[in-house]
Every structure is written in C-alpha cells, then in structure tokens.
Amino acid sequence: MNKNTNATIKELQTGLAQGTFSSAEITSDYLTKINLLNPDINAFISITREKALEQAKAADQLIADGKASALTGIPLAHKDIFCTDGTTTTCGSRMLENFKAPYNANVIQNFENQHAVMLGKTNMDEFAMGSSNENSFYGPVKNPWALDSVPGGSSGGSAAAVAAGLAPAATGTDTGGSIRQPAAFCGITGLKPTYGRVSRYGMIAYASSLDQGGPMAHTAEDCAILLQTMAGFDKRDSTSMDKEIPDYSASLNNDLSGLKIGLPKEYFAEGLNSDVARNIDEAISQYQKLGAEIKDISLPNSKIAIPTYYVVAMAECSSNLSRFDGVRFGHRCDDPKDLEDLYKRSRGEGFGEEVKRRIMIGAYTLSAGYYDAFYLKAQKLRRLISQDFSQAFEEVDIIAGPTTPEVAWKTGEKSADPVSMYLQDIYTISVNLAGLPGMSVPAGFADGKPVGLQLIGNYFDESRLLNAAHQFQQHTDWHQMSPEEK
Amino acid sequence: MQWETVIGLEIHAQLATKSKIFSAASTAFGAEPNTQACAVDLGLPGVLPVLNKEVVNMAIKFGVAIDAEIGRESVFARKNYFYPDLPKGYQISQMDLPIVGKGRLTISPAEGVSKVVGITRAHLEEDAGKSLHDQFPGQTGVDLNRAGTPLLEIVSEPDMSSAKEAVAYARKIHSLVQFIEICDGNMAQGSLRCDANVSVRPVGQQELGTRAEIKNINSFRFLERAINYEIERQIDVIEDGGTVVQETRLYDSEKNETRSMRSKEEANDYRYFPDPDLLPVRVTDEDIETIRTSLPELPEQKRLRYINELKLTDYNAELLSSSREIADYFETALCRLSDQPSLLANWILGDLTGALNKSEMGFADSPINPEQLTGLLTRISDNTISGKIAKEVFEAMWNGEGSADDIIDSKGLKQITDTGAIEQLINDVIASNPEQVEQFRAGKEKVLGFFVGQIMKQSKGKANPGQVNQLLREKLKP
Amino acid sequence: MSLKTEDVKNIAHLARLAIDDDAVTDYASDLSNILDLVEQMNQVDTDNVQPMAHPMDAQQRLRDDDASEPDQRDKFQSIAPDVENGLYRVPKVIE
C-alpha cells in the first residue's frame, strides 16, 4: 500500500509541485485502494476511474507547463448530492439510480476550474436524510474505525472515504450536522460554512434554508485550502452571499492568546456520554494552554432545537422533493394506469422509508389548519435559537463543545426508532437553524472510536474557526491517526 | 324576487419580459415544444430560481398606475400541488405579502357613467406549462415552454354588479397594461386571462351569496356571456329551492354554458409556505419614484385632459384614451393640427376606425399615418376641399396614392372659389331650369336644394358650397 | 399526538406516495412519535416573536432581463423516462 493515501492535501500539493510524484500516480494509488477497500466500507456509490485518470493526466500536463493552480491534480471525492455533468448523481436514492445531471454543481465546477481530479461519488443517506448512512439505497457505509458501527451521516461516505484513505479529502453537505457528525464519528476534520458562503446551485436540496456544502479532510489546514475553492458568490443562487472571501490559509497560524471560547452549559448536560465529555474537557484544557480564555455561556433554547429543526427541514423537504414525479427525469414506475398511479408508485418505489416519513410529516405540518401550530411556530423558535447565539457572540469569539453526545453507534442499533436517531443531532442542528459556521475536529477516542470537538463561529468567521482548529492540531495528533494503524 | 349580482375578477396578465421570471429562458411565443424550457423551468434537481428585475419593475408600474400601496417587502411562497405541467410540484407565487396592495380603477360601463372598482391586490407568480391532450392516444403531452413565464395576477374587489361592468373593468385593465407596456394584451395567445367570481343575492341582503369561480374565459365577449349564463343558472338553482355550491366551473364557449370542475375544497390543500430559495423583495421609496416618473400619461389622465382641455365629448375622450395605439395616433396628429381636436377626433373615430376595422388592422399599421391624415384635414380647414371631396381623397390615400395635396392636384379636386367661375355655373343652371326658378320665386324654398345639387354636380363637387349658396340666392332674387 | 391509519392514508395521498397497506400501521406509529417530539416546541412561548424564514437578513437579488439560456432540449430529454416529438408523456390527464 502506498503511503501517499494517508497524506494531506498540503503534502500532496508539495509532492506534485516538487515532482515527487505525479497526479496520475497518486490518482491511481487512490483508485487501487478504493478497489481494495470499498467493497467492505461502501464509501463510494460510483467510482469514476476513467474520468479520474484522464483528469490526472491533463493535470500533470498543466503542472509540467507551469500552469497549475492550487488544486490541480489533487484527487477528491464528492458527495453524491452534487450534480456532476455526464456521470450519475444518485443522492443515495433509487429515485435517481440512472440520473445523469445535465450540468455541474457550482462546487464541482469550481474544482474542475482548478483541474482537481474526481475519484468518484460518495455514499450518503438518501437525500441527506439521516445520521448514520443506513438510509442509502446503495447500502450502509461502514465506519473504518469499527466496521460494525455507523460512520455517521448524511455525508458518511465522504467521512469514511477520507478516514480510510480512499481519498485525501471530500466534499460534504450539512443540513443539521451532516458534515460535522460523520467527521466526528470517523476522526476527520469537517467544516460547515456560514449559510450562503458556498453556492447551493446543483446541490440537490433537502432543506433549502439549512443546507450548506463544505469540506471534509484530515486537517483544518486542508479544509482551509478546499474552502478557498468552494466558497464564493454565485449569481444562480439567490441565497448566495456576495461577500469578500478572506485568505483562509493566511490566518491559520494566528496566536490564540486572548481568544474567548464559550462553553454552553446545555452542551455538557445530561445525555452527554462521560467518555466523550472527558475528551472534550481535555481539548478545552489544551486551548487554555494555548492562551484562550474559557467562559461559561448559555444557549437556553437549545432544548427545543431538535423539534424546531425537524419541522423546518421536513416542511421544506416535502416541497423540495415534489419534483421527483417520474415525468422529466428519475424513476418511473412500470405501466402506470393513470396519472395518480404514475405519481404514487414512482415516488413510492423511488423513495426509501425515512424519506417518505419526512415528506409525510412535512406535508402534514404545512397542511390546512396546522401551519401556525407547526411551521410558523418553528420559524419563531428559530429566531429565538438564533438570538441565543447572537447574544453569546457578544461575549465570546467562538463556542466549543462536543459534536455529538456519543461516539459512533452500532449499525442497526437505532434504525428501528427514528426519534432516537434524531435526538443524536442535539449539538449540531442549532448551528444550521442560525446559519452559523461550525467545525468538527478530532479530539480523542472513547470506546476505541473517534470523538469530535465542535467549534462554532460567528457569521462568515470561518477564518477564526480554521485558525483555532489548526492551532489545536499543531499541539495534538488525533487528526493524524489512521484506522489502519489502530 | 329581485336579485342582484356580485362579481369579482381575477385577471392574469403575462408580463412582457424577454426572459422568464426565475430563469434566463426566452418567453417568446410559439417555439417548438420544450425548446425554451431550461433546467430551472424543468425543475431539475439542484437548480435554483433567481428573480428577474424587469418583472418587479413591471409590477410596480402597475401598482403606481392603479394608485396602489406598493409592498416595501414582498415575499414569494410555494403553492404545492401535483400536475404534469407544474414541473417542481409547486408554483412560486405570492401569498401573504404581495408586491401590489390595495388600489383602484375608474371604469365607464356606459356612455357618461363612471364607477370606481377596487383592486384588492396584484401579485407575481410563474405560469405553468401546457398539457396537450390531442397528441397521443390515451396519453397527454407536456410542453414546458410556458412554464416560468411571469404573470401578474390582478384581483379585484367584488365591486361589479353586472356582466357589462365586469367587461368594462376587464377592458380597462387590458388597455392599462398595454398602455404602461407591461403586457402585450394578446388574448388569443393567452397573454391576458380572466377568471370570474360570480354570486347572486336577494336585493337588500347584506351578506354575499355563495360564489362560483368561472375559468377558461379567453375573450371579452365570452366573459359577458359566461357571467350572464352563470347569473341565470344560480338564480334558477335558488328559485328551484336548491343552494349554490362553492366550486370552480369551466366555461364552454361552444355550448355557451358553465359546468362544474372538481369541487375545489376536496382537491386542494396547497400548503403555502415562504419559498426558502428566494429572499424577500425589498422596494424603496426611491425605486417607486423612479418608476412613477418613467410612466407615460395614463388613460384616465388622458381622458380627463381630452375633455377639459381639448373640449372633446366624453364619448370621444373615452375612445381616444382607450388604447395606447389610438391615443398615440391622436396625439401625434394633434401636434400638427392643434386647433382642430374635434375635427381630428371625428375623422379618427369615424372614417379611419371604420377603414381599419374593415381590413382588421390596428392604428400602429394604419396605411394612413397621422401626418397624412392631418395633411388632409388641413385642406378641409383652409377650404381647399369640401368634406365630401375629403372622403374621396381619404380613400385614395388609403390605397396608397400619395399625400392629400398630391391627390388633390393630380385629380384636380381643388375647390372652385373663383366667384366668376361659380357665377357662370349658376347662370347656366338657372337658364336651363326656368320652371324651378318660377317655383322658387313663388316661395318654394326647397327648390334651392335642387339648384345647389345641380351646380355641385356640374362642378364635380369642387364648388365651394358656401359660396354657391350665397351667390345662388342673389341670382334667384326676383 | 396520535395519527390514525386514515390520517396516514390522507397524508400519503396529499404527498402522492404509494405505501403498502401493511406498512400503514408502522407509519402511523412512527409519524405519531415524531409529532410527539415536535410538540415539545410548545414548551416555549413565542408570542411577539417574528418568524425567521432565512438565516440571513438579506434581500432578494435581481437578475437583468436577458434571455440568454440556450436550447438544450435534447440533452435534458435524454434523461427523461418517456418523450415523444419533444413532449414529455404522461398518462392521459382527465379534466
């Protein structure tokens, strides 16, 4: 096995620039490793081998000609929620089993413009609905650290691919924790940017007011490099923000002394696994050693974040997924006897159980007579939750706590009871409701499985988050551990 | 029992933009199926709507023109339902916060009568595609070219009490949207569509009766017929001891009847909620002022000016301000003939309108342009030709034979005003009709007409009728 | 909050989802549990709170009125399940 497959992007950039290896070499190393390990881990839904090798060859030429940009020749994996022109984009669903998008997502196009290499499309919970990657039509993903456990979700394929060294980094999307939670479960670093920082164009929508794409990698430094390419204004997305993009790598080495870190008491209350808590406490001590000031804060409305989130997300998804009707693309049932039959069977067959549950709850909460009690109520609570953060950020620079209450659970353990799974999102979902940036950073192990430290920043303050995470990684080695060496 | 009718209209005006409301696909009419349906219009996964600026401007124009409150913050909402011509499974529309609020419009349902109709609101939304039922046996074909075309839905108050008033209101909206150039008004192509809410109640009753919504009305004539049919139907239902059901009814113009579609409550729970892909549209006072100053003079302002300043009759003022085309024609001509507005109005609304109607043409493509028409009317005013000869010249101009002066010259139609020449004609006629001379002198005044006719005939209509009259009387004196 | 099987069938119809008859009871219980979770929202008073539809207090950006989109019908229809003469085909729609 080639050592390169556990390298960081930073290291690959250096190697490519110095001619230590070519893009074609590392691309084929990753493809070899994917062939070897993917049958066990199931991190990829599709492997775009030919395209990858072609792109790598072209990248090598650009490097030789001195025309390379930052990510030229760097192999990456993309969550199968991002539309890729000419290759299948399934979103983890039978509905899109044969769907070849006629366009690239903005995120994909940004990487193509830099001549990065696409290794394949990663597995995910169907339409990003899930926290365990068990809700995929293409089978569950296994956690490289413990094959009997879930990798988290919904970007579980991306997290597992990076953790297992099947890709140096990957893209993910985060609606309620779908980047941060699998990053935590798989021992990698993941960043959900501020809502509006990364274009949603071509990213198949789950809940439009919450969805945000972001990078998943070994290190904060790699996340900074990837975000630099992913972030940016896109005129095709009305919710994309036209705001200056800082040089995310430039501020990575800023001194943390005087950084005010808030610890929300609600994130350390009942329900938090004690082993996880101990790791988080140690991480906080590390920040203190780096000169940070620790403050106790409160986010009092955290307790209703889960119901609020699910009402908003399910209402939006019930409408977003109406376009999957078997008429213009996607799964269509055999021999529909009439129009209603076409709709009902195409959708009934094309969507999995969890997707159907969420669509139905969403339709119900928006229906006549219930709108005020559910959707409108949730929108009001959303404001209160958001205000909690605004108040907190008057006192502190970043907020820290656990990414998840527990480490990765065993496959099948919670799948029978949807609500027990929803409750696992307790620390991540408020961030999406408020639209803030959040990260998960490897911070130790409990029960042999990785623990994630969550860092939450103020709007468009990704630089500070990346800086804090990078400094932590300069003094810890959790992010360098590999399941192969375990 | 005496019944009264209550009518409100919902008019969908297709906004005359180049591209769609949320995508850059063309809105041109008549393209090959689905060639103007882009990824956004097709509702493909992952694509997103971005609002067309011109659509917002046009809605504000309309709002200003009906003196309405403009929503400083308006919000797009999703109206969820499944239908093959609705690609996303929802229509983007406006619900709670429309861009145009309460306004009003003055209509003239009959000569000399005017009435103010309240407009509840006007909101923006996207059009659906077209389902074609006659293309394949047992199947429906879907063309999504029209999907995403911007519509302004104009909702009136239930202020109209007869089909005539409803038609007058619809016509006024039709002319207004063309006047301010936000809609081409082409009803045959569906650019303006009308739904009518109709109910009846006993005269004197305060509360409204149960209403039926009539859809599928694509001309003013059908609007009047559909409403009248529906009024009769509802009265019959009630007088037969039944009750009117709240429902949507389809107008069948061939049979001239309305018939029930599915009951509306059963089928539709639209689950409106704010579209999370779009942000609130904010409009500032400054935006509104910029648009206000860019608006042309509106039909109502013109109508009043024609009556008050140009002293036209109410009837002529109403007609001349009824469309942008006719008003533009009139005013262009008026610049050249500013002292004769009534003469101009009579010719435009008389001979010219008649000729245009006969050849199914509009004022914009009239073979006689305003310059040519005023050329002709100037020659009437300065006595070069008589009104009768003018009609002959008009016809020659219509047939492209040149300007009025050219035609007058080449056909020798110039009026004879030389007293000597006219006297000669009179002498001839008197000499050859001694019997009639006697009659006149005996007091039979009517015979004068005979002489005038004879003289005009001899002069081929060119003799100045005033002069002929005067000279004739002198010559016939005993 | 408890949903009956009849409620589930109505919602499934509203959302145009075919669900197996023998799965309706499971759906009813799952959906009821989710609604119980959702009802926790009532613990917090929200009188006088403005609803928040978007994370950002931003306004809609407006696009210039250019019809710049090219015709890509062939590409778009290559992924469609049933197309004939440029039209998407569905079972007969009865008005």
Description:
The complex is a heterotrimer of chains A (486), B (478) and C (95). Chain A has 486 residues and is of the alpha/beta class. Chain A has 15 helices and 11 strands. Chain A has a single domain (3-258, 397-485), classed as Alpha-Beta Complex (Amidase signature (AS) enzymes), CATH 3.90.1300.10. In chain A, helix 2 (23-41) packs antiparallel against helix 3 (49-64), helix 7 (220-230) runs antiparallel to helix 15 (462-475) and helix 9 crosses helix 12 (372-395). The model of chain A has no long low-confidence stretch (mean pLDDT 97). Chain B is of the alpha+beta class and 478 residues long. Chain B is built from 17 helices and 16 strands. The model of chain B has no long low-confidence stretch (mean pLDDT 92). Chain C has a two-stranded antiparallel sheet with strand order 2-3. Chain C has a domain at 5-43. The model of chain C has no long low-confidence stretch (mean pLDDT 94). Helix content of chain C is 32%, strand content 9%. Chain C has 3 helices and 3 strands. At the A-B interface, helix 9 of A face loops of B. Strand 2 (51-52) of chain B pairs parallel with strand 1 (62-63) of chain C.
